[in-house]
Amino acid sequence: MKLALGPLLYYWPRQRVMDFYAEMIEAPVDVVYLGEAVCSRRHEMRLDDYLEAATMLADAGKEVALSTLPLIESESDLKAVRRLMDAAKDDPRLTVEANEMGAVRQLAQRGQRFVAGPTLNVFNGHTLKILVDCGATRWVMPPEVGRSALTGMAKAMPAGIETEVFAHGRLPLAYSARCFTARRYRLQKDCCEFRCIQFPDGLPVKTREGEPFLTLNGIQTQSAKLYHLERELPELAALGVDLIRLSPQSEGMAELIRAYRALLDGLPAAMPGGDYCNGFWYDRPGLDWVSGTTP
Questions:
Q1: Helices (H) and strands (E) in the chain — how many of each?
Q2: Rounded to whole angstroms, how far apart are CA atoms 138 and 161?
Q3: Cα gap 295→291, rounded to integer Å
Q4: Contact between 147 and 239 (Cβ < 8 Å)
Q5: pLDDT-based confidence at residue 134 (cuts at 50, 70, 90)
Q6: How far apart are CA 6 and CA 120, in angstroms?
Q7: Which of 263, 230, 228, 265 is nearest to 247 (CA)?
Q8: Radius of gyration over alpha carbons of the chain, in Å?
Q9: Which helix (H) or strand (E) element contains residue 14?
């Protein structure tokens, strides 16, 4: 299996993002997704910045995909997606991850091959066949899909399509046209003061009893716990999964990638500790942690 680094979901200062991807040149990751995949108001990184990082990573032998927004809400958003597609078309080393059906339509009309992102919500083989006919060469399974659904879909999987599974990180659970981080500070979305840049791993939310519940990341709602499929790697391989996705986090990402790389290569690895969950994989509530080989 290949190792993929998903798009950065948080709002970091530009130099921090560039330093992060410079560090990824040496990391044993095969595929890197770049681009703003949460909120169109985030402008620390411009397209030229992402293309600079993409060139740097592609020169180092990484496969690079440019990710589109999950919500296209205006003509300016659409223009930004078109510019991203143009950039990918101009460099054969780059591809596009489509995270919204409007982007799929644009790519199909252009005849560009693409990755069907997790927010396209593919839950059956029929939908996957439509995307393949539009030009998809890989699909990223929605994180809430578990092994039983993937096993069932394997029978209807179109030939040649690659499967990627979200394997580590805070689960991206929902998106909204409203910004919850702005609302936390009693601000309107259009006047958010870019408050999410203050939270490099999102804004944690607890229940009234003080238990970790969710993570707010602008218009995105994430899990509080880290989804973690370390123990399930042999099962994923047996199911024909081609890639696993690790979601960027602010600390220890290079060490985490090296640990997963070692496990994929059949070597021992010391995985960092964390507040983990894996319930979705076992068709359980997502925040559950199922231990042992048989749930």
A1: 9, 12
A2: 5
A3: 7
A4: yes
A5: very high
A6: 15
A7: 228
A8: 18
A9: helix 14-24
Tell me the per-residue pLDDT of 148-184, one tens digit each, with 9 for 90 and over. Answer: 999 999 888 999 899 999 999 999 999 999 999 999 9
Q: Are 271 and 262 in contact (CB under 8 A)?
A: no
Integer Cα distance of 233 and 74 in angstroms = 40
Report the share of the chain in percent with pLDDT over 70. Answer: 99
To 5 degrees, how large is the angle CA 143–CA 144–CA 145? Answer: 90
- Neighbour tally for 92: CB within 10 Å: 8
- The SS3 assignment for 290 reads coil
Q: Are 16 and 44 in contact, with CB atoms under 8 Å apart?
A: no
Burial of 27 (C-beta count, 10 Å sphere; 0-12/13-18/19+): buried
CA distances to 90, 91, 195, 257 from 12, in Å: 28, 26, 11, 20
Report which of 90, 2, 11 is spatially closest to residue 248, judged by C-alpha positions.
11
Q: Are strands 212-217 and 203-206 parallel, antiparallel or unpaired?
A: antiparallel
Retrieve residue 215's tokens.
């993570």
Cα separation, 8 vs 81, in Å, equals 17
pTM of whole model > 0.85? yes
